[in-house]
Write a structure and sequence with these properties.
single chain, about 150 residues, alpha+beta, three-stranded antiparallel beta sheet, 3 helices, globular
Length: about 150
């Protein structure tokens, strides 16, 4: 959680509230987060998907692609693989024409994933929810490999 918001770990109640919001997003927007599971074991290792980045009002209206994986799954290409599938869903079934991604300055691993996805740097700004510097990347339907 070092690179999410202010870096604090959520309580059980905060997690339950977030999961409810994740589920509502599908009904409200027609897109949301996908659970990432290891096929061999069925172990939940994180999520990837699309959400509205309300925490950064200056870029709204926007849809963000994001991911969070268990630390023991980092560096295996799973975030990139899942994000590619989520982008395809966003540009295809969800009918989006632009998707952004946001990472805190210093989270170079997420920045590299954004570049692998073909996203381009759009701006650097401050996340008002935690006062940390973030970088915003974007990709449009014309920039996405279909």
């Amino acid at each position: 959680m070092r690179w999410i918001g202010n870096g604090s770990v959520r309580t059980r109640k905060e997690c339950a509230t977030a999961i409810s919001a994740f589920e509502r997003a599908w009904d409200e927007h027609g897109f949301g987060l996908f659970a990432l599971e290891l096929p061999a074991s069925g172990r939940l290792i994180g999520f990837v998907g699309l959400s509205v980045p309300h925490f950064l009002p200056e870029i709204l209206p926007s849809v963000e692609i994001g991911w969070r994986l268990a630390a023991d799954q980092w560096g295996k290409g799973l975030a990139t693989e899942g994000a590619r599938a989520a982008l395809a869903f966003g540009f295809g079934q969800a009918g989006l024409d632009r998707i952004v991604s946001i990472h805190q300055v210093g989270n170079d691993a997420s920045g590299r994933i954004m570049e692998k996805l073909g996203m381009r740097f759009e701006r650097e700004t401050i996340d008002p929810s935690c006062h940390r510097r973030v970088r915003v990347y974007e990709i449009t339907t014309s920039g996405a490999a279909r």
